[in-house]
Amino acid sequence: MRWISRTLDDTGGNLDPYLAWTTGPGRPDALLPGQVGQRTSVLFSLNMGAANALLGSGDVPNETRELVEAFIEASQTITYGALRPDRFHTAFLPAAAHLRGRDLIGPVLPVLDRVCFGPPLPERCLDKGIVATAQEAVARVKRGKVSPNTVVVGVIDDGLPFAHERFRDRNGRTRVEAVWVQDGDYRGPVDIFRYGREITRDEIDQALDDCRPGGPVDEDEVYRRLHVADFARSGWRSLARHATHGAHVMDLACGFDPADAPDWILVGVQLPVATTRNTSGTTLASYASDALKYIRNTALTLANGGPRLPVVVNLSYGLVAGPHDGTHILEEAIDTVVRDYNQAGAGLPMRVVLPSGNSRQGRGHAEFQFTPAKPEHELSWRVHPDDLTPSFVEIWLPPAVAVSRRVEVIVVPPGARPASPPLGEGDAKALELEDDGGVLCQVTYHQPTPGSQRGMFLIALQPTARIEGAGSLTPVDPIAPSGVWTVRVRNLGLTRRETVACWVQRDDTPFGYPPRGRQSFFEDRQYRRFDEKGRVEDGRDLPGCPIKRDGLMNAIATGDEPVVVAGFRADNGSLLDYSAGGPTPGTPGASLWTRTGPDVAARSEDSGACPGVFGAGTRTGSLVAMGGTSVAAPRVARLIAEFLAEPSAHAGTGGRPDVRSLAAPTPVLPPERAGAGVIDVPPVHRRRRRL
């Protein structure tokens, strides 16, 4: 076992920091196992002037020219009315091209402001060609009835039960305008996108009519006919289960008894299985960005040239690691889409609601400062055995006008294994721990993202266990040793007031999926997990302990536009010990932080004895209890929809200030965790008492 050094041609801040891993040692886990034909999604922002200048230079290799032309084509989508052209776009590269990584993308980087790779899709989900976005929007027929009280409610999630009675009107017709299954078999363009399958209102209504053998709708047959829970086809089928995260969230956001259903038009986007199963969130950006644009475009189509309809979108997903300063590529994409919609002509606004995250007790965040007496800090990173997924740690440096060697990082594997050479700030190389020809660990430095001024070290580990099969890319894929990995951060030029922030990337198993990931975490003797009575410690962390409960807020929820919701317990009004919050670093150079934490807290648990809140299962009549800030967010999304359905009755437009004004301030709840206070939205389902 030895450490080797490999030169990286480019470490620019516009490049996906995970690219060196996913195209190198992490390749077996970056592609879909057992899929012969697959293409990788790329979310990018193109500098059109630089692209045209590069093509006009005359000295461009054919391969580079073809790729730049493909990115230009993907960027040339038509706009709706007064809407400005989108800043971010998605294209798909053949898997073989993705594996070439920097060799292919490197020459194109000067024309890309940002680029981020996502998980691949099988070719059956995609149109032919390298580009997934159409040059012109596909003509769409307005189906839903628009009234003065119409609100478009979008839900981006997994396992959306669109045939459920809670999403029908009093006449038995669906209230769902469309559902975009992003990894569904491609049957033609979906709005401006050329991947996945769109299930329209007409298809849902037809299936509901055809699947009534004895009166009630046979929802199993509906989902089988529409190929979202068809056991004659391969792949994961979320809707075949009795409960899904998406069913619960969708019900809390926009579910009603048919007799009470308002004039809300529902639009769903079911994210690819590969994105949901990988809870790290590093694969979320391209698909979530497209999902938000799809909901926006559907609302504009329904408006039919008239004033903009109000739109509320719930995205109950999140990351742990990231810059936490509003500069993550998905945060910028969300802010851009929302801002552009709200500035385009007359009408009501778009709002996006996100959870604050459930990682407060996860020991996934560490902060420290250096002193002359302590020029080096050492972190213990506990990695579990039997972890079938990669693990990551991000080390974010304080802002700097120019990159200099202020800090260096050393990684020590468990046991009597060699420590890595130091990797310094600005080093354009990868340190890799090699054993029997396989790379077990990779350490890289990533230049500051545009607008951030903060560089980042990324430590990536192979899974600690594998289930080898026919889909393995190598006969025996590498396995990293479990145990405590030591991360040493050595000061070379930081002042005692400058803070280094570290995050462990999320790596658990999502609800309803087979166990794969096991969450790694930091360890320290000073960290108290439980108090003297054996209860989970939820107070302030000790000053000398580097591991922090604060600062673990959802890493895609620190932008300007989204309403961010924490979770509280209804019986005593206390914040849940898992509900994550700030403070956040904010955008460098700003006089005030962008946000210090969530905006408000909403109910995510009824009581200690009755955990969770009730929401729909995947079939009509079923109820399940789920907890977490993921179920607090849609309750506020529902409140905002009610707010926008009757704008004349309210002074505001459902934005962050309006939502915060509805909260009841509580002095005992810190704003870094509860924002402006608690909003106790009435339960969607009340518990029934037996007489």
TrEMBL record:
PROSITE patterns: SUBTILASE_ASP. Residues 649-691 are annotated as: Disordered. Keywords: Hydrolase. It comes from the Bacteria. This is S8 family serine peptidase. It comes from Alsobacter ponti.
